[in-house]
Amino acid sequence: MFLVEKMEENGFMDGIKYAVFTDKSIRLLGNNQYTSNVESGSTRTGIKHWVELFFGVKVISMNSHRLPGKGRRMGPMGHTMHYKRMIITLQPGYSIPPLRKKRT
């Protein structure tokens, strides 16, 4: 269980921020692909191991890309944080229960 201890030390247990529910992500659910935003510093292998351990599923592949931060004009000028979006493909027969939605 060295891997689980190391993942908890590095904060990978909090890696997934929230699930993404857009038209494209809902369409991908039919292909057994799940979309979620994760911490920008998390790695693909760390998220893969965390998903497999926590949900008890088998991950085939993962695609990721970084989304740019948006400009902010209220208060101090600046921008929001960058974040990473992961598309996780599972083996047929496995599924992930709905993840929590981001509060608006």
TrEMBL record:
Domain of life per record: Eukaryota
Cellular compartments annotated: Plastid, Chloroplast
A cellular component annotation (GO) from this entry: ribonucleoprotein complex
GO terms assigned for molecular function: rRNA binding; structural constituent of ribosome
Record-annotated membrane-spanning stretches: none
GO BP terms, alphabetized: translation
Coarse class of the protein's main subcellular location: plastid
Alphabetical UniProt keywords: Chloroplast, Plastid, Ribonucleoprotein, Ribosomal protein, RNA-binding, rRNA-binding
Signal sequence residues: none
Matching PROSITE patterns: RIBOSOMAL_L23 (PS00050)
Annotated function: Binds to 23S rRNA.
Complex formation: Part of the 50S ribosomal subunit.
UniProt similarity note: Belongs to the universal ribosomal protein uL23 family.
Stated name of the protein: 50S ribosomal protein L23, chloroplastic
Organism encoding this protein: Papaver somniferum (Opium poppy)
Taxonomic lineage: Eukaryota, Viridiplantae, Streptophyta, Embryophyta, Tracheophyta
